[in-house]
Every structure is written in structure tokens, then in C-alpha cells.
Amino acid sequence: MKELFDELKKLKAKRIFIQYPEGLKTKIQEISSDLEKNGYQTVLCCEPTFGACDVRDFEAKRLKCDVVLHIAHTDFGVKSELPVIYLDYIFDVDPIPIIEKEYEKLSSYKNICVFTSLQYVESMKKVVDYLKKRSKQVFIGKTQKYDGQVLGCRIDAALKFAGKVDCFLYVGTGRFHPMGVCLATEKPVYSLDLEKQKIIDFQKEKMIYLKKKAWRDQELKDANVVGIAVSWKQGQNRIDEAFSLKEKLEKQGKKVYILAFDTASKSKTLGMKFDILINMLCPRMDDEDLL
Ligand code: SF4
């Protein structure tokens, strides 16, 4: 927190607009109270923030805030009319009992690329040490702030080793990051899931996804009325691509609507009629969120 207070002092900030991931909701009041005790006013953004692609400088300005505090995300390069402070939030979860229990799943691989998301960079380091001690050749890329760190839509830190490794190992929680890598490579991808306390092989998930995708592709071919979902969030804004796609689909005889969302959900299109919706928002949105 010291670095944060130094930065706020440097910016002469008084009122702070705070964005944070859903997973930090239980802690955010505590963080806000700490800031208030130190003389700052805070406004907690209650719209979901999935990444640093979403900087709410316009909203913050309207609420007369002078700085945006983005917690648990790293700079995505989004331009902002207000200063933005990115505050790391790193969980120190011990992965060793899990890898010890599940090591057999990795034992036959010699060259392993390990990757993670921001919150788990410390846990990843412990996994890397563990694998090195077992004479594995470990590959770790760096394209974000930390070694091995990927974003859901930026997975180069892992993919750059696709030609060199025997498998990939994600350290963290959830399916989004390992699934992204799994879809982009033929090599096996595993997730050391710190919540589920096991190592998960993503091959089966990939097969299910690809079957679903083939089904959706056919649905799109047959569709008469299509919605293309876009977002006005700065780092997700693909409006030009959406209009090009609309033109292409219209040439195939379809009726196409562009739908703009802040955060997309099924309930927001209730009453409208579409044969299919195309996601041009964050790739982490599941079909189930939209359809
Ligand atoms: S577009 Fe999605 S995956 Fe990419 S940074 Fe934003 S929230 Fe994360």
C-alpha cells in the first residue's frame, strides 16, 4: 500500500474511483476504508470489471473523481482522461501439496511451459522451482508485467514456446486462461487449479468446445437474423470489425443488427429475436452469457 499512497500523493488525488474484479468484492470495503482513514474519498464501481481493457475514466470524471484505481489488473495500454493507478493484488496460495499429489500427470513430460494470471504469479514461481528440482526444462515467457503472466486475450507469453515444449501448465483458477492456450495449440494443456486442488487435463474440454463451435458455425450458416455484440469499453471496442462483418453477412442475405453492451447478458436482449448472436466482446464471455 505504501507505493499506492506515494502515487496518490504525487497526483494530489482527493477522490478515487475504484475498479476491481468480482473476486475482490468481499475485500473492497476494507480497502476503501483504509483509503478513507488516510484522508481520501472513494467511489466503488459496482459495474463488473474483468480487465484493464475497461477503464471508466468518463464515469469517474462525471462523479468528480480525480484518479482511477484499477485493482488486480495490469496496464492494457488504454488511453484515459484521468490518471490510472494499477494496483497488483497477488494471492500467495501454496501449490506444492497439489503438485505433489498430482505429479504423475506431468511426470512423462520433459519440457514444460508454465504460465499464470496476475493474481497467482507467486504460486507459479513455487511450481517452477518444484519442476526444476525434478529436472524438468521449464519455459517461461514475458510479455506482460510479470514472468509467465498472460491475459485472456493476450497469451503470447505461453504460445511462443509451442514449438519447443511437450506440454503447457497453467497455475491459477478457472478455465478461461488454460482454455485460450489449449485452443491455440496442438500440445497438451494442463491447469494446476488452486481452487479445485487438482491438475486438470484440458483436452476433454477442448473437444467439447470444438463440437459446440462446429454446431454454432452451422447455426450461423442457417441463420436469417444475426446480432453482433460489441462493447464500448475502450480496450474491447471492435466496432469497425463489427460493421465489416455485418456487411459480409448481409451479402449472404442475412439481416444483421449491431448490439452494444456495457456488460452483456441474456436478459438485455429479451424481447428481441435473433437466430444467433456473435460475440465481439471480451473472448472470456461464454455462449451461455449471451444466448
Ligand atoms: S478483453 Fe477480456 S480477456 Fe482481454 S483484458 Fe479485457 S477482460 Fe481480460
Q: What's this entry about, in short?
A:
The chain has 291 residues and is α/β, with parallel strands linked by helices. It has helices at residues 2-10, 25-37, 57-62, 96-102, 121-133, 156-159, 176-184, 203-222, 239-251, 287-290; strands at residues 15-19, 41-44, 67-71, 84-87, 111-116, 137-139, 167-172, 189-193, 198-201, 225-231, 255-261, 276-279.
List keywords for this structure.
five-stranded mixed β-sheet, binds iron/sulfur cluster, 291 residues, Rossmann fold, 21% strand, four-stranded parallel β-sheet, 12 strands, alpha/beta, 3 domains
Spatially, the strands of the biggest sheet line up as 6-5-7-8-9
Global Rg: 21 Å
**Bound chemical compounds:** iron/sulfur cluster
The CATH topology label of the largest domain is: Rossmann fold
Would you identify the CATH architecture of the largest domain? 3-Layer(aba) Sandwich
Number of strands: 12
Please render the helix and strand layout as text:
Elements: H1 2-10, E1 15-19, H2 25-37, E2 41-44, H3 57-62, E3 67-71, E4 84-87, H4 96-102, E5 111-116, H5 121-133, E6 137-139, H6 156-159, E7 167-172, H7 176-184, E8 189-193, E9 198-201, H8 203-222, E10 225-231, H9 239-251, E11 255-261, E12 276-279, H10 287-290
Parallel strand pairs: 1-2, 1-3, 3-4, 5-6, 5-7, 7-8, 10-11, 10-12
Antiparallel strand pairs: 8-9
This protein binds iron/sulfur cluster (SF4).
Iron/sulfur cluster (SF4) is lined by residues 50-51, 53, 76, 151-153, 235-236, 282-284.
